[in-house]
Design goal:
The complex is a heterodimer of chains A (260) and B (259). Chain A has 260 residues and is mostly helical. Chain A is built from 9 helices and no strands. Chain A has one domain. Chain B is α/β, with parallel strands linked by helices and 259 residues long. Chain B is 36% helix and 25% strand. In chain B, helix 3 packs parallel to helix 5 and helix 6 runs parallel beside helix 7. The longest helix of chain B has 18 residues. The chains are: A mainly alpha (260), B alpha/beta (259).
């Protein structure tokens, strides 16, 4: 009896996973159908870009500065030991531009933006605001989802560029704690080690990070069910799933970059 | 506003015609294994106010959500303006939805917008070329009709329950619908505000010649607004008639609503 119940529970669990996966694929496919169809809610897109991009600058900037500073301070002793301190700007720039900048920005955005989108749309769902749009013959998917996903897709790569710049500046400040190097010299050394093939894949994967943060946040919020409790659940699920998606996309991107 | 409210004693019951604007035939709707609606047949004529009464969980809200296409019936048909809602594609459904107003129980005002923006939103979406001054005038008229012109710049969080309902009503009426669906319009309001909202519903029906379906369990609201009352019990229509006819009923279950 207990075994049969376990079997039923397992079947229900797997059924839920596949149903959720199917729903998410349908939700994502709908984005590509709706994004090219008029009307284009351009003002809402600009508003969301401002909320998502501009309002994330202080958090992203501070984190980037600290990461750049700490990375430089932690790496310096090993390089000094091998008499290779002059390679420090190049090593820091490579680490930040290729990996740390995009991933740190994406994880911060998954937390800040993913949860905000999940909570906002979840709240709109449970207070019937999304239904109110539907019955007014307004396409809520187009107005709420398409604009937010486009905003995250455009803004996250821009935030990554900002993170890279601030992170490198943090590295410069850290270098000046133990030695004396000019800003121009630091950036010349840092950029000498950077190729186009380092920057381009990092920006491409940032676009995917932004897309997945937006679409997962929207999916969790848009499909929230029940009372106010589900708003919190939607926000939480958005953060967890978006963060996981960032790491999975990063892993795939690294494999593809390696092949090129 | 109060001076303009319609006197209940002067309520006209002959403003509607025989033209059926909503026709529901044998409507069934279940959620998982629970059958909420068990074969509803209902016709609403042009200009008529039909009140749907019933206890909580009787399927009242499900009924109006089927009319507007938010829920799909398991069995049966819903005809709005002579068209079967289930057979319409998204574009056709939206053409119908523009002619239907829906006032949600919570009023469903958009939290991130001011009152004025709430009213402007459907207008801007459907009438993109409307000049700014005409848009402003339409919004002001809409707010004036519910007595809240001074609330234009307030956020929805600053409004009381009654004000939210009024703004919700103004937002719905701004697209000049032919049918209004009210989901518990007086729930959660005090007696005075409930009466004001009920009288406002009646005023709007007379002024704009709108057909209405009003979902409620508030008998005072039913008395003020109803041309005809349909009573739902366990997902089926248990009684139907005018307020006076049902009030005189000998059925114990019907009588329990009028005590």
């Amino acid at each position: 009896m207990a075994l049969a119940q376990q079997q039923i529970q397992k079947t229900g669990y797997f059924k839920k996973i596949f149903t959720d996966a199917g729903d998410f694929i349908y939700f994502t496919t709908r984005f590509f159908k709706e994004v090219f169809k008029p009307p284009y809610p351009f003002r809402e897109f600009i508003k969301q870009s401002f909320e998502i991009g501009y309002k994330s600058l202080p958090l992203v900037g501070l984190t980037a500065f600290i990461i750049g500073l700490v990375l430089t301070l932690q790496s310096r002793p090993s390089l000094v030991e091998f008499g290779a301190e002059s390679l420090l700007p190049g090593m820091v720039s490579n680490s930040i531009i290729r990996e740390i900048g995009p991933v740190i920005t994406a994880v911060i955005c998954a937390g800040k933006i993913g949860s905000a989108i999940g909570a906002e749309l979840g709240s709109m769902r449970v207070t019937e605001q999304i239904e109110a749009m539907e019955v007014s013959a307004i396409n809520p998917y187009k107005y709420l989802v398409v604009t937010r996903v486009l905003a995250t897709t455009f803004m996250v790569p821009l935030l990554v560029i900002f993170t890279d710049a601030i992170g490198l500046y943090g590295g410069y400040v850290a270098m000046n704690i133990h030695s004396n190097i000019s800003l121009q010299r630091f950036f010349t050394d840092a950029m000498a080690r950077i190729l186009f093939s380092d920057i381009f894949p990092a920006l491409i994967k940032s676009i995917f990070f932004g897309f997945f943060i937006g679409i997962i946040g929207c999916y969790k919020g848009y499909n929230a069910k029940g009372g106010t409790e589900s708003v919190g659940k939607a926000a939480n699920a958005a953060v967890v799933s978006a963060s996981l998606a960032v790491f999975i996309v990063d892993m795939i991107a690294v494999q593809i970059t390696d092949l090129l | 506003m109060n001076e303009e409210l319609v006197n209940i004693d002067e309520k006209e019951t002959d403003v509607f015609t025989d033209e059926a604007i909503v026709e529901i035939k044998n409507l069934h709707k279940s959620f998982e294994n629970y059958e909420v609606l068990k074969g509803i047949d209902l016709t609403v004529r042009k200009g008529e106010n039909v009140v749907v009464l019933g206890k909580s969980g009787a399927g009242k809200s499900v009924l109006i959500k089927c009319i507007v296409g938010l829920l799909t019936p398991d069995e049966g048909e819903v005809y709005v303006f002579g068209r079967n809602v289930a057979e319409l594609n998204y574009k056709e459904l939206n053409e119908i939805r523009v002619k239907i107003g829906f006032l949600f129980q919570s009023a469903a005002l958009y939290d991130s917008m001011t009152v004025g923006e709430n009213l402007a939103f459907p207008l801007k979406y459907h009438f993109k070329k409307m000049p700014a001054d005409e848009l402003q005038q339409t919004i002001e008229e809409g707010l004036e009709s519910v007595g809240l012109k001074e609330s234009m710049d307030k956020m929805s969080s600053e409004l009381s329950g009654g004000m939210r309902k009024r703004i919700g009503l103004a937002r719905t009426l701004i697209l000049k619908p032919d049918i209004m669906l009210y989901d518990e319009p007086t729930t959660g309001l005090d007696t005075v505000t409930s009466k004001e909202i009920s009288e406002l519903i009646l005023e709007m029906q007379k002024k704009n010649k709108i057909s209405s379906i009003i979902i409620t369990h508030d008998m005072a609201c039913a008395k003020i607004t109803a041309d005809r009352i349909v009573m739902l019990k366990d997902g089926a229509i248990a009684a139907e008639g005018t307020y006076e006819e049902l009030a005189a009923s000998n059925d114990e279950w019907v009588k329990s609503f009028f005590m």
